[in-house]
Structure formats: C-alpha cells, structure tokens
Design brief:
This protein is α+β, with helices and mostly antiparallel strands. Among the domains are: 75 residues; 108 residues, OB fold (Dihydrolipoamide Acetyltransferase, E2P) (Beta Barrel), CATH 2.40.50; 76 residues, no CATH class; 38 residues; 126 residues, no CATH class. It has 21 helices and 19 strands. The two termini are 48 Å apart.
Length: 681
C-alpha cells in the first residue's frame, strides 16, 4: 500500500514538475517562521552544524534522487532560518536600552513618520550625548513641541526621555518591540522641550545627498496638495500620492476600514499597478500615432521601459516604504516579463517577488502587509490561470454585431470583474484580517463596486497626470480633479460604513489555525491537478480553530495597572482606570470587547470607585485602593494583583484563563513572544 501511495505521489509530482519551483519561497518562509516560533534565541553554532551536516549528507546521498529531494526541502527551510538569524544577529550588535533614561543629545534625522495619533516622529542616527560621545544605534523621538522646519537630512539637538522598546500588551498580539528591533531602533522616547536645528558639521556628519533631495521633493508635493485641496480630501490625496497618512483623521480611517476600502489609503500593488499600467497605455498610444515608429520598433517594450521608470519615480515620491517596495518589485517583474517577451501575469512572478523580498527583508513574513498583499495576488493569479480563457472568450464573442453592443458588454464585464476580483481578494485576505485586525467588513464588495471605477478611471489617471505636470508647476487643475474623485469616494465610504452591521468584531484565531489555512490556500493555488482540492480541508480546519480560543478571566497590562475582567455574561469589560488608552484600544480590537453603553459604563465606574456593588452585572467589590474579583483575585489600583496568595506585581501582560483553576501566562511564556532584548542573544 505504501509503495502504491509513493508511486501515485511520484506520478502527480511528475505532472506538476513545472510548479515545483513555486514551493521554493514557501519553504524559505517556513524556515523564517520556525525561527520566530522559538521561545529562545538559538546559538549560531548550532545552525552552522546543521548546514555542514546537510552538505555532508548531500555528498553521501548524491546517487539517491529521492533522498536528495527530501534533503533539498530541508535545505531551503534551513536557508530561510539562517537568513533571519543572521539578520537578527546583525541587528543585535548594538545593545538595546534597558531602562528609562533622560538624554541631552544631538543627532541626524534619517527619516520621519507619524504615529497612530497623527503626531510626527523622527528617526535619529549618528547620535552624540552632552560630552560629545557617540551613542550607538537609532532612536525614535516624538517631539511634543515639534519644529516643522526640521526635515530629513537635518541635524538637531534636544533633551529627551527614552524608554526601552514597547513590549506586547497582550498574548499573541502585535509585537512592537520585534518590529522596532528589526528596524534597527534601540529605544523610543519623547521630548517636551524645544527641538533646535544645528549644523551637521557640529557632530561630524556628512549628510546624505540623495535622501534629503528626494524628501524635499516629496514634502513639496505634500505641501502643494494641502495648499490646493480641503483637509478632508487632502489627507487622502497625500496618502495616495506621497504615502503620507499621518494627517488623515481617525474618523476617516475608521470609515474606510469599516467600508472595506482601507487598502486605498496605503500605497500597494493597486496604486503601483495602475500608475505603471496607465503610463504603459499612454506611451503605447502616443507611439501608435507615429506609424514610422510603430512599424519599426516594438512599442510594447518601449512603453514597458517608460512604465518601469514611472513606477520607480512613484516609489521614491511615496517614501520608499516596505509596502511600496513590494508593489514595485511585483510591478517591475511584470514589466521585465514584457521586455523579455515572457508571460507577464504568472505565479512565477509572485514567487520571484516574494523570494526577493524575503531574502532582503525576512522579518516581513510575519507582517500583515506582506501576508495580505501576497495572499490577494496569489489567489487572483490562480483565479486568472483557471478562468481567464473563458472570460476573454466571452468578451470577444459577438463583438462584431455593433460597437455600442460591444461597449455595453465591456462595461458589464468590467463591473462583474470588479466584484469577482474583490470577492476573490476578500476571501484570500479574510483569515489575515481576522487574525491581525479582528474586524470583518461585511459590505466590502458593495464599496468596491461603487468606488472601484472611480479609483481606476478617475482618481489614478488624475494622480498620474498631476505627477507629470508638477515639474512644470501646472498641476493645480489635475489636483482639483483628484480631489473631486476622492470627495466622491469619501461619500461612498461614509454611506457604506454607516449601514447597520457594516463591520463585525471577531475574536482572533490562533496562530496555528492561520498557518493551516495558509498551507491549504497555497496547496489550492499552486497545484493544478485534482489533488489541489485537498487544500479545502486544511482551510476548513483552520477556520474551525477559532472555536478553540480561550478568553481569559483576567487581563493585566505590562505595568500591572490596567485590568479587564469577565462579567456575569461571560464578556470582558475593561475597568475604568485613567490612562493606558492605547492598551485598552488594543484589547478591544484583539478580543472583540464591545464598548459599554452609557448606562452600563456609569454603573461600572461607580463599582470601580466603590460606591456600589452589582453582582448581577459583575462580581466585583472595590474600595479606594483595590478591587476583589469573585473573592479570589485582588486587583491593586496602584499596580499588581494577588491570586491564591501569590503576588503577580509587575509581571507584565498577564492572562488568567480560569479564575477557579488558574492557568496564568505571561508574554514571555508564550510561543513566539520572546522579548527581543540583548538578554536573549
């Protein structure tokens, strides 16, 4: 029976041999994920021993093809593991800040960004302290008294208070410290005094020539946008054109998210593809107007070169962000395929793009942006490979009857294409939306059907036109056209987000459930024979994993000062202490904690103050200093809590899964939640 199975397996692989390469980036990513799943930092010597063992085995098994095939799979996984380990080893050469520290410093501004509140922050490099001694590493500074004159490439001095990298505030939640660690940051902080610009010669820094130049162009573009358009549309336009999302209001961001149009706010393959595609069409149309050129040269390749150049310019203007880099790589591979006379849209293109990104930025494999963009791209390509022939055949059929009939049919097919593409992309990204954002946009197809044509046929062509006209200073009317289109999309977003039940809060599935879904989805997308349908079982099992999620009875933040407990209706409620807004917001989103009604909120505040008790609502008794939960846990309002006579003060990000039979876990005890500090290396 085993021999029969092996024969069948080998027979299928022979039929699928052209698709085997597509598993290379998957296995490479698997090695990276294995590294992140560890609770400890493995020594690099063990990795070297494994690599040497693989080399020896490759030599010993050189005459055994089946063994070599298995060895090749293991080797690719080991390459991914080694890649991310070397990246972490390189980042860890400079120690992280361990304790809060006030510093007088001078430094070079290498980049600028905006936090979740829209406040500007500066990434500082080449730092020096008061004595002129060098401070190693990059620090992120948020000036409370911001100096708008300070730009990228400038140098500054100030007094600031820095803290260690931010720890996760919930088990399995987003790890800010890990992201910041791989960005090269050693600490984050703020300055509540003035920030002064100084000559870079004072700290012996030779400013980058190109970085400030491109940043100045980008800031000029943003300034023109805000000078031309009203704030409601200028923020969206700045995000679409220059990648600056910091000034979009929280209300607008929430509306775009609830309507399922949040992807429009972040420059991605949608924007890059449209800009490059429009440039390709325009250049080819212009060249077609000159028969002497069109008949002598391959205008498709000339147009591809111009589109590639425009894509690169858009990449620079948009701030060279990771998501934009991904979009440019994928678009560039498509255009390079046109230049080489190869099939432009293929699964190999997605495989090469993902592999290139993972080699140079291996840590992005666990980011929502990477996962969602490639999930959508892979599933759309798989759908295109399966059904493109039937779609194109129907479009061309009966087109000789009349131009009007053909035009009407094309419009209908286009609208159907928007709905189908959105449906496929939404299904592909749904597991990642649930896992990372805990929110489902119910009417995303309606929003994309209404806004998609406006974005594709109005806004993005106007964006391209405004970028082409900006060097000549005549972009005003083009920007007005962009603003009118965005205004219309804003109205659509407001309408769809306002529909009752437009978005649903859901619990996050466990990481292993998401992993099984990804494996099943890749099995469906990559293979082409009938055994690909086995992937549906993995997808189903992964979604069922949501029912294994445990909601803890008690949640505690990193400082052991903010608490959430279960009420008598088995729902978590956050106790109304002051501060920690960000932590509370993260808890609400990750654990689908509903906002209390005004009446329930007032009752909870009175219970927390100790004015009343209401055991029908929640078994909680409080006084000025502490609260007693279910007569078993003592929650100290100044920090820490006691459970079964054990003091858990300052443990950080605790979760008690069962109050009667406590299972207490901290972030550091959970798989994949290691602290990313010098102690682990």
């Amino acid at each position: 029976m085993i021999s029969t199975f092996l024969y069948y397996f080998h027979h299928i692989l022979e039929r699928e041999k052209e698709r085997l390469f597509l598993w290379f980036p998957v296995l490479f990513a698997l090695g990276i994920l294995f590294y992140f799943s560890l609770t400890f930092e493995p020594t690099i010597w063990v990795t070297l021993v494994v690599i040497e063992t693989l080399i020896v085995l490759a030599y010993l098994w050189r005459k055994y093809p089946n063994r070599l095939a298995v060895l090749a799979v293991v080797s690719v996984i080991a390459l991914g593991f080694t890649d991310i380990q070397l990246r972490a080893y390189h980042q860890n050469k400079i120690p992280l800040l361990r304790h809060e520290k006030t510093l007088y410093l001078k430094g070079y501004v290498s980049s600028i960004g905006y936090n979740y509140r829209g406040r500007r922050y500066l990434i500082l490099d080449h730092l020096q302290n008061f004595q002129g001694r060098s401070i190693e590493g990059k620090y992120r500074l948020t000036p409370l008294q911001d100096n708008p004159k300070i730009k990228v490439g400038h140098c500054l001095e100030t007094v600031a208070e820095f803290q260690p990298l931010m720890m996760p505030n919930l088990l399995n939640s987003y790890q800010f410290n890990r992201q910041q660690f791989f960005q090269g940051l050693k600490a984050t902080g703020f300055s509540d005094v003035s920030v002064h610009q100084i000559p870079c010669q004072n700290i012996g820094v030779k400013p980058d020539i190109f970085l400030p130049f491109f940043e100045k162009i980008r800031q000029k573009i943003v300034a023109k946008i805000y000078a031309t358009l009203p704030p409601e549309t200028a923020g969206i336009a700045a995000a679409v054109i220059a990648g600056e999302r910091g000034r979009i209001s929280i209300r607008q961001t929430a509306e775009y998210r609830d309507a399922g149009l949040a992807h429009f706010l972040a420059i991605s393959g949608l924007h890059m593809g449209m800009i490059a595609g429009l440039m390709f069409v325009i250049i080819r149309w212009i060249l077609a107007c000159f028969p002497s050129v069109a008949l002598r040269f391959d205008t498709k390749k000339i147009a591809a070169l111009f589109a590639l150049g425009m894509g690169f310019i858009y990449l620079i203007i948009s701030g060279w962000q990771i998501s934009t880099q991904r979009a440019f790589i994928m678009t560039a591979l498509v255009l390079i395929g046109v230049l080489c006379g190869r099939k432009a849209i293929s699964m190999r293109m997605a495989a090469w793009a993902s592999l290139l990104i993972l080699i140079f930025e291996p840590q992005v494999v666990i980011s929502a942006g990477f996962q969602m963009s490639f999930a959508a791209a892979i599933m759309l390509i798989a759908f295109y490979e399966k059904y493109a022939g039937s779609f194109s055949g129907r479009i061309g059929k009966d087109c000789k009857r009349s131009y009007l009939f053909c035009f009407g049919k094309g419009v209908i097919i286009y609208l159907i294409g928007i709905v189908v593409a959105d449906f496929v992309a939404s299904l592909a990204t749904l597991p990642f939306v649930i896992y990372h954002f805990n929110r489902i946009s119910v009417y995303t197809s309606l929003a994309n059907l209404l806004a998609g044509p406006i974005i594709a046929l109005w806004i993005m062509p106007a964006v391209l036109l405004s970028l082409l006209l900006m060097p000549f200073g005549i972009e005003t009317y083009a920007l007005y056209f962009v603003g009118e289109g965005i205004s219309l999309v804003n109205h659509i977003t407001n309408y769809v987000a306002g529909i009752n039940g437009a978005s649903l809060q859901v619990l996050s599935m466990p990481a292993w459930g998401l992993f099984i879904i990804v494996c099943g989805g890749l099995w469906l997308a990559i293979w082409q024979t009938k055994w690909r349908h086995l992937g549906w079982f993995a997808v189903l099992i992964g979604f069922l994993s949501i029912w294994t999620v445990k909601i803890p009875d008690i949640l505690v933040d990193n400082e052991a000062k903010t608490f959430a407990v279960k009420d008598n209706f088995e729902k978590l409620v956050i106790l109304p202490n002051r501060g920690n807004y960000f932590t509370k917001q993260m808890w609400r989103e990750k654990l689908a904690i509903s906002v209390l009604s005004e009446d329930a909120s007032q009752i909870l505040k009175k219970i927390y103050r100790g004015s009343i008790t209401d055991k029908k609502l929640i078994d909680l008794q409080c006084n000025k200093e502490k609260c007693i939960y279910k007569d078993k846990a003592e929650l100290n309002k100044k920090g820490g809590f006691v459970l079964n006579h054990k003091n858990y003060s300052n443990e950080g990000a605790l979760a008690v899964y069962n109050i009667s039979n406590p299972i207490v876990q901290t972030v550091s005890e959970k798989i994949g939640q290691r602290y990313w500090t010098i102690n682990n290396y």
